[in-house]
Amino acid sequence: MILKQSTETLLFKPNNFKEIYDDLHELHQLYASHTSISAGNMDDTDLLLPSGKAISPTGAAHCLLEIQRTAVFIRGIHKAILKLKQSFPDQQLHILYAGCGPYATLVTPFTTLFSPEEIRFHLLDINEHSIAASKKLYEALNIEDYVAEWICADATQYKFPTEQAIHLVISETMLNALRKEPQVEIMLNLIPQMQEKAIFIPDNITVSAQLLNKRQENDRLTQFDLVPERINLGNVYSIGRANCKIHEQVCIQIPQEVLKEHSLQLLTEITTFEEERLGIYQSSLNMPVAIANAQEYAGRKINFDYHMGEVPGFKYSWLP
Ligand SMILES: C[S@@+](CC[C@H](N)C(=O)[O-])C[C@H]1O[C@@H](n2cnc3c(N)ncnc32)[C@H](O)[C@@H]1O
After folding, report:
1. Mind listing the pLDDT tens digit for each residue in 74-130?
2. Distance, CA 307 to ligand 1 centroid (Å)?
3. Could you tell me which of 169, 171, 199, 206 has the C-alpha nearest to residue 185?
4. Nearest to 263, CA basis, from 195, 209, 310, 184
5. pLDDT at position 43
6. N or C, where is the chain less crowded by C-beta within 10 Å?
7. What is the DSSP letter of 193?
8. Ligand 1 center to 315 CA (angstroms)
């Protein structure tokens, strides 16, 4: 069956991109056929929350087909489950998935590897249509035994159940440079509620300010051995299980000597777990965000502040 086959391809053939691509498209057909939610449709609307945008069920379905994103998250989650089995031997592991979307994409594959006695899901989403779709999918695939509860709630406000320990929390509710979606506010709410040995995925998200040489970045598309020179000017935010804090203003200085091709950009690196990482260009979550032409601001300083709220993201101002 394609669910088992794609899980094995994702986990054990990490460099076989063609097979991963084919399997995830076949898996999408299976999920779409049971839920009537298909990645290509885009006929529903996003929810605009006080904490940012919650993308629609079809938008969330589309995330499955962000091949490298899905692969790196699933490989990280697999490693985390194996680690938790050591930390909590013989215990059933409870996994809270905040923003599960219509397919519970990042946990459903594990129903082919572990039994319901080993892992149990708490599937949470703010969108009732996504919750209804994931219920339909689990019933159709006859895997409802894996689900402890479906929860329609806002993950920026949600409080953990008092009667049940949570061992693993997963949330991928982000865009590049932590724009627009509520990932940061969700992390700030959920991580402090976690017990000591519990794991949050992604383990870390770091946004850095870098000078990219636009000509070299273009040339690398045709010259595969070209490694573009990127000048890291410093981190503007790093948030994860080990450093879950509200952002504090960061000042970055542009060097005096810059080329006309240099562009100041924000780069996003995501560590899902251990060595499972997503870096520049590997998914839409890692596309650089351009801030300014560096030469116009040579020698100047720029302050970055992260704002939460309806449109999360970095605001910046140049110092005189
Ligand atoms: C980017 S999609 C990811 C879908 C799926 N988890 C995946 O990784 O393929 C984000 C999901 O998070 C949900 N979401 C966004 N903000 C939320 C919030 N504040 N509380 C609960 N769910 C939220 C959206 O409704 C959407 O289903």
Report:
1. 999 999 999 999 999 999 999 999 999 999 999 999 999 999 999 999 999 999 999
2. 20
3. 171
4. 209
5. 78
6. C
7. G
8. 24
